Amino acid sequence: MASFFALFRRKSLKSLVSRSPRSVAGQVLVLQVALVVVLVACGVFAVALQSKRDTNAEARRRSIAVAETFAHSPGVLAALQTPDPSKILQPLTEAARKAAGVDFIVVMDTHGIRYTHPLPSRIGKRFVGTIGPSLAGKVYVESVHGPLGQEVQATVPIDDEKGKVVGLVSAGLKVKNVTNQVDRQLPIILGAGAGALAVATGGTVLVAKRLRRQTHSLAPDEMTRMYDHHDAVLHSVREGVLIVAGDGRLLLANDEARRLLELPPDVEGRLVSELSSLDPETMELLVSGREATDEVHFAGERLLAVNQRPTDRGGGPKGTVATLRDSTELQALTGRAEIARERLKLLYDAGLGIGTTLDVLSTADELARVAVPRFADFVTVDLADAVLHGEEPASTATDMRRTAVCGIRDDHPLYETGRLIHFLPSTPQARGYDSGRPELVTDLSTATGWHAQDPERTKAIMDYGIHSLITAPIRARGVVLGMAHFWRSEPHEPFDEEELSLAEELVARAAVSIDNARRYTREHALAVTLQRSLLPRALPEQSALDVGYRYLPAQSGVSGDWFDVIPLPGGRVALVVGDVVGHGLHAAATMGRLRTAVHNFSTLDLPPDELLSHVDDLVGRIDEDEAGTESAAGVVGATCLYAIYDPVTRRCAMASAGHLAPALVHPDGTVTFADLPAGPPLGLGGMPFQTTELDLAEGTQLVLYTDGLIEDRRRDLDVGMELLRDALAGHPDRSPEESCQAVLDELLPGRPQDDVALLIARTRVLTPDRIADWDVPLDPAAVAGMRDAVNRKLDEWGLSELGFTMELVLSELVTNAIRYASEPIHVRLIRDRTLICEVADGSSTSPHLRYAATMDEGGRGLFLVSQMTERWGTRYTPQGKVIWAEQALPDVIEEPGLTLADADEPPDEGAAGQ
């Protein structure tokens, strides 16, 4: 119907006016203009007559007034009694005529002979007019044709003292002058009439335009036809129309509105508030007059979509028009479409919200939470216990672990999280697990097999109000990993067959994520096991350093960061920190190979730069060996820092293969970073490594770390190093363990994005009373003197029982140096955790252990040394070589020469896992 009226609004006004001069608007315009013209003409005529009558009356009144005034003027009577009245009165009458604005004043005797006249030639002649009434004492007015033409004149008598008429006075105006007065007023009259005509015509045009706009310049027959069509459309459309006046009265209701609202026949004109058949909400809307768009209201069993708009927006009468549309069937279709939309939205949200982590428990919990309360009131997820450990599940629904529970309330009687459940074969859970298909139980009260599982528990569930169940297997790659159970309680309707397929689709989306998490759990467990087997489980005993350490794996799993503390001959200790870029088994395995290589090369007692060169060659060979394999992973971005600390000399030698420089916490609490040349990462080759030596004061803390400690996506490397400096500074007395924890708390409040290895070592110094040195001349006779000196030192240290063995070892090593080496020869005895004997010479030739034949005279010395000592070996120095041998100390020995002895306690075994 709205489109029907819009048809007329879209028509051009010009086309409507031009096409039909017989339109209602045109006819009204012509009629009103003609009426205005007639009225204005009549008005002008009436005004002209009135003006002429008023002008004549004014002329008569003025003539009488002038004549009477002059007749009663002083001196007129006396002038009449003189011999020559004209001589006196002629000037007076002319002056009075001009002053009074009349055309003539004539004084005459009783016989009508003039004494005065505007024309002097007329003096003495007889007056033209009637004097009889005036002689009788009356005032007489008449129109005559006199000497001046057609005149209007008034004649009055002049009386003496006795009342006798002794003369007459006549005053008047020419008719032409009277007509000129009317003619002078006529333009004003005509102008006023023209103005009135213009105003009236303008108003008529405006009214006609308003009428033309309202009728769209339609002819009467067109108007009749339009309203016929309007009535036909209004009462035949399948949409109810109500027009309500501003006072709440119903002005119009079409047939469809009457049918939808069941209105009585005489409803029009009644107040809406009096219509008892209307729903209260619908009545409130119609009475309020507010705007509404597709509001749903009840009308009996119908659902009506109501739209309401005011009618006074375009200047129309105050009120509202409402349209009603029966949407009962549409509402049903909309409800089904809304349900389908909600289900699709649920599946979409499940795709986004399930599987955000590679954790089995978290994924199961996400499945439970996404379905509550949008699909079920309670959701429980049971997984095979083997799945939680990354293993393949069993073939039956036994050993099921409840991994997730979520519901609209927390006081439910369902099994709690973590419980191990063995489902009976008669339960829907077991049937679904065995068949791999979902099971629907619309009424749990009739599920006898489910009741047999746990009668007391099932009764509590029924009493709680849970009445319907869908159990769907979590199946991936053809293997059932567990079951998801969806429960509904009062007052919700039970599950139906359509929802069974929805549950199956929902669980299918989660099954892939759970299986991925299971496989990741298995791989992660293998990688963690491998990594823990490769990292040091406890630090070795040594006296040179007090060590604390931390290792934190990244969120994404194991990686290739490692650290090591390696005791070296002579009481020295090697510190190692390395990093293999990447995560997973390959990085962990590569880290293990590099750590083993560093251990092996450290037994050669090589300087740091030479050791890194050997490791670099090893990495290059690893890359060459893996270049032809399918994976071709290789070692990418491996770095390493190797440092050797000597507690005797307090010197620390270190070299870096692309690793970050260590931090030094000095005894005064200040923090610096070692000026260490950064060599190339391992495996690049072609560039030599450089060793830097530092003198460290006793109590200095040496801080070695990997880049995961100071660098991440939120901060630059320089910022991280400054944070590390701030965390270490000002605490020189803090133990390495406390320093490790303080650094992690400051720099890594949460779980790191990358692996972190942190190693903090505080230096100790061996006091001079635990070291003995001798220079040996190149003379075989000096051997006996050395034996005596060593025996005296051992007696001083309380180690006399080791004297025989040490004499034998010393004699063999010094004899070999004198016989086969060159000067200078130096002997050093160190009392540490073992008794260490070192013989240095200027030769770089190393002796070899061999088996001597029966008849050989020599070759048995080193064999005796190896048999009598714990360990022995050779290390090379820039001046030559050092042959050393270690002998175990007795069980109970005081160690008065150790400084920082309180740091000898081994670190917390759980520190590596923190």
Structure in words:
- It is a multi-pass membrane protein.
- It comes from Streptomyces lutosisoli.
- There is one protein chain.
- The protein has 914 residues and is of the alpha+beta class.
- Helices cover 40% and strands 24% of the residues.
- The protein has 23 helices and 31 strands.
- The strands form 6 sheets. Strands 12-11-10-15-14-13 form a 6-stranded antiparallel beta sheet, sandwiched between helices. Strands 17, 18, 19, 20, 23 and 24 form a 6-stranded mixed beta sheet that branches.
- A hairpin with a 2-residue loop joins strand 2 (140-146) and strand 3.
- Helix 17 packs antiparallel against helix 18.
- The two termini are 78 Å apart.
Question: Which labels suit this protein?
Answer:
914 residues; alpha+beta; 40% helix; elongated; disordered N terminus; disordered C terminus
Number of strands: 31
Radius of gyration: 65 Å
Low-confidence stretches: 1-21, 892-914
- The number of helices is 23
User: Which whole number gives the mean pLDDT?
Assistant: 81
> Spatial order of the strands in the main sheet?
12-11-10-15-14-13
Roughly how many Å apart are the termini? Answer: 78 Å
Q: Give the strand content.
A: 15-25%
Helix content: 25-40%
Structural class: alpha+beta
What does the largest sheet look like?
Answer: 6 strands, antiparallel
Outline, from the CA principal axes?
A: elongated
Brief description of this entry?
Keywords: ATP-binding, Cell membrane, Hydrolase, Kinase, Membrane, Nucleotide-binding, Phosphoprotein, Transferase, Transmembrane, Transmembrane helix, Two-component regulatory system. The protein is an alpha+beta fold.
